[in-house]
Amino acid sequence: MASGIQYHPKSAPAGTVVRSDAQNERQSQYQKASRLIGDIYDASLDPATWTTVLEEIAEFVGGPAAMLAFTRPGLAVVESYHQFGIDARSMRLYSETYSKFNPLAAVALVGIGQVVSVPDLVSYEEFCKGRFYQEWAAPQGWIDVASAVLEKSATGCVFLSVVRSRTAGMVDDEMRRRMSLVIPHVRRAALIGKTIDLKRAESSTFAEAFNGLCSGLFLVDGRRHIVHANAAGHALLREGSVFRSINGELNAGEAQINRILRDTFAAADQGGAVRSARGIALPLQASDGERYVAHLLPLKSDAHLPAGAINGAVAALFVRKAVLEAPSAPEVIGRSYKLTPTELRVLLAVVEVGGVPEVAAALGVAESTIKTHVSRLYEKTGAGRQADLVKLVAGFSTPLAD
Fold first, then answer.
1. CA dist 17 to 4, 8, 30, 318, 371, Å?
2. d(CA 80, CA 70)
3. Distance between CA atoms of 254 and 152, rounded to whole angstroms?
4. This model's pTM is above 0.70
5. Planar angle of CA 165, 171, 172, nearest 5 degrees
6. Rounded Cα gap, residues 182 and 176, in angstroms
7. Could you give the strand order of the β-sheet that contains 226-229, starting from the edge strand earlier in sequence?
């Protein structure tokens, strides 16, 4: 008969195997470990659950408290990411006063994944005499801690610590063994969480940049469904004069434009040619007669697309009103060509009002005065005619929304 397995014919049907208490305990520990590992990886997706996971880790490893922490090179100060079993007052005292006396900052000197306790890092006798132990650890009933480095970089060291209570005694071989089982999973989960955070930050950065554009931006999939729209794009959809969203599908007010968009998005989705790798331009007219221009750029290529918002998009559509926008900072033009305030004023009037007679009337000065300023503008900018001045100002217009 196999060791640990007993037959009880009086209390169980013939052939039934009844497990011993030791086997039941091992099975229970196995199930706890399996759940714990699953919860650790779940925490990489939802950082808010790390406190609960640290509670599970502390229970499994054998301690009343646990902490995910960070220490910077050359500094004794330890910063806590997440913790369990440390009350708010103790945590505040730790952050404000005792972190600088914590000898566990020396954990940064050991190898990644190596489980160490206080005696491995410093003299335990000296540790017990120090302020960190006397004033912070001992009052909480803590006498030792098992720690392991999860990640090292030029900016610092991330580590996991599980405290050992006075009633449980110093860190022993069993605690080290259990800690060693947990560390690889916590380390991978932390790296996964870091990668996810970077992707979220990258996506947020792209979204903020897109929302800063004055042009409406639509990222569209092969079936014309809007994957993402920036703030100006949503404003165009609300107006409904040029484009509308019908069940999430981008629709133009003109049937011909709709056909072009449908064919172009479908071709981009299937990897076909889209007239030009640089995209196409489409003239648009709103219901109120305003003119717009749309630039359609295919996104399907061998290049990697920015992560996040544009996932699934095959083309980007930029839409803006067909007007000459005045520069948001005209003083930049003035500094570039060393224009006087009056010359800059005349330059902007030429763009916004028209020829010399119209500018003179608008500014209330003689035409001869305007001609003199325009001649100086030609000399300073290198322009040869008023149309060149208009192009110059257009070159300084900003793509950013006000």
1. 11, 8, 19, 71, 108
2. 6
3. 58
4. no
5. 130
6. 10
7. 226-229, 216-220, 315-321, 291-298, 280-285
C-alpha–C-alpha distance, residues 71 and 78, integer Å = 5
Could you give the CA distance from residue 53 to residue 189 in angstroms, rounded to a whole number? 11
Q: If you ran DSSP here, which 8-state letter would residue 151 be given?
A: E
Angle separating helix axes 356-363 and 367-381, nearest 10 degrees: 120
DSSP assignment letter at 304? P
The answer to whether 164 and 146 have CB atoms below 8 angstroms apart is yes
Burial class (CB in 10 A: 0-12, 13-18, 19+), 157: buried
What is the C-alpha to C-alpha distance for residues 158 and 72, in angstroms, rounded to an integer?
9
Q: Which residue has the tokens 């392991």?
A: 148
Amino acid at 133: Y
Supply 24's token pair. 């039941």
For residues 348, 350, 354, 357, the Cα torsion angle rounded to the nearest 10 degrees is: 130
Residue 25 is encoded by which pair of tokens? 């305990």
Buried/exposed 19-57: b ≥16 CB within 10 Å, e otherwise: eeeeeeeeeeeeeebeebbebbeebbeeeebbeebbbbb
Residue 138 DSSP symbol: G
pLDDT tens per residue across all 402 residues of the chain: 344 444 444 455 555 555 566 677 677 777 878 888 889 988 888 888 999 999 999 999 999 999 988 877 655 556 667 889 988 888 888 878 888 787 777 777 888 999 999 999 889 998 999 999 999 999 999 999 999 998 887 777 888 999 999 999 999 999 999 999 999 999 888 888 777 766 666 666 677 777 777 788 888 888 888 888 888 889 889 988 889 998 889 988 888 888 888 888 887 777 655 544 456 888 888 878 888 888 888 875 544 444 444 457 888 888 888 766 655 567 888 888 898 988 888 888 888 888 888 888 888 888 899 899 889 999 998 888 888 888 888 777 766 565
